[in-house]
Amino acid sequence: MTDASRFRVNPGRTPGAYQRGRGSLVCAAVRVGRKILAVGGIRMGTKVAPLPADAPPRSVHRFTIEEYERLTAIGFFTPGDRSELIDGWLVDKMAHNPQHAGTVDVTNSAIADLLPAEWTTRTQLPVRLPGDNAPEPDVAVVQAPKQQYTKRHPTEKDVTIVIEVSDTSLDEDRRLKIPQYAKAKLPVYWIVNLVDRCVEVYTQPKGGKNPTYKTRADYGPGDVVPVVVDGEQVGTISVTDLLP
């Protein structure tokens, strides 16, 4: 992809296309917050498909994972942009209220205390998955050491558990994240459900045309959740200890 700084907006036009010099190469542009970005070369006359009906409900922009990583590398995205790549869509993330942020912290600490030395946790950082996906789960249990992720993001081969803490994001954490995590064959997916005050544990991922998890188990206050790492139970966590 070409650096956006090498393109210019055509004067007098609504932002939506950049053109470089003479010729027919035009770059589609999108707005991310207050920024306008050239995202890829197309030929004049190319029709831009409308957003599909099942696109994510918040502000989204279509990228390949290579484009997304290139933009991140050149500093286009800032911490204030708060977005993640889901099936090629750049999805704006919800702001964190104290209940959500505190539960992420508590969950991460509870999981980390149980892990064998060869595993570690990451919080709200990218995981590179197939199919133009770079979600940022609230907690991910990945292979240690952490130092290896200074050169690359973890992939599906590194991850054994992903966890989302869900309040206002509950619908999307089920509807969008379940298919993506199942398609990547991530073994265990937890939703710490602050709405219904339970922990949903999804296991046995199934790929194919409609990826999902074959098994769901719900744990409420008074229950303990088994922590299964690389196929082995390493301990349990009380649901009451996780919920605010």
From TrEMBL:
List the CDD domains: DUF820-like
Database matches in InterPro entries: Nuclease_put_TT1808, Restrct_endonuc-II-like, Uma2
GO MF, one example? endonuclease activity
- Ranges where the Putative restriction endonuclease domain occurs: 66-224
Q: Which UniProt keywords apply?
A: Endonuclease, Hydrolase, Nuclease
Q: Which residues form the signal peptide?
A: none
Q: What is this protein called?
A: Uma2 family endonuclease
